[in-house]
Specification:
Length: about 290
Amino acid sequence: MRQAAIIALAVAASLTSPACAGPIVEHEAAKLPIFDAHIHYKEPAWEAFPPETVLKMMDRNGVAMALVSSTPDDGTIMLWEHAPDRIVPELRPYLGDWGSSNWTEFDGMADYIQTRLEQYPHRGIGEFHFRAMETTNKGLLKLIAGMAKKRDIPIHIHSGTAPVEYFYEIDPDLTIIWAHAGMSEPPEVISPLMDKHATLYADTSFREYDILSRTGGMDKAWEVLLLKHSDRFMVGTDTWVNSQWADYDRLIASNRECLAMLPKDAAEAIAYRNAERLFGIDVSSEQLGRR
Ligand SMILES: [Zn+2]
């Protein structure tokens, strides 16, 4: 009889849980407001995850605000217009057939970026990709660095080390968010680059399983890196395809799992305080449920 009651309770609990809920983190990290520094709202997501749904997903995960860039930029503007107090828009320089592999070859790209920046209050330029520096239009990169600097906004780069160094050669005072902390770059490469450039930030998207050790706890090299540069990392989920949106609860839960292993100051910095400083905003749990 008692056993049956326990099973009934367990079934009832599972029915009320969100479909993709991750592990429950029993730590104050579970309550920190999150600034998600790597959201895309691309066209295929618009119907499956309308703006109301995206806000509900942010709310139930304690994501107070997000840095959003999209292909095309209309997705970012749609989300920002729906929830201007929750969305920090960022201009991704992709449109039509000009995407991650060829965007620097589009003759009208500098004009497009300039026009969009004048039309809307974007707070960053990116996230954009680099395939090979040798074939990249470097004149355009100089123009982008100038536009970012003039507006005092960061650029958000998906690349290895070389393009980050190239942008700092153009202007050592640029602010750069290194998407996915270099994607496959190890802590031994990320750490000295952050030592060298005080304005180099990074987001954790796609690095959750590098940061979390397979044997439990946090990977030692990542722990050292996150503690040393806790003033430069931000949480990120990278909703680049709809399956990432469907997995959003779990992605935030993984990030909270990492935060729960850090001291309070470092966890707060990475969860939202670095974004507050970088964008001159206030991030708080009181924003949840609002737009
Ligand atoms: Zn990326």
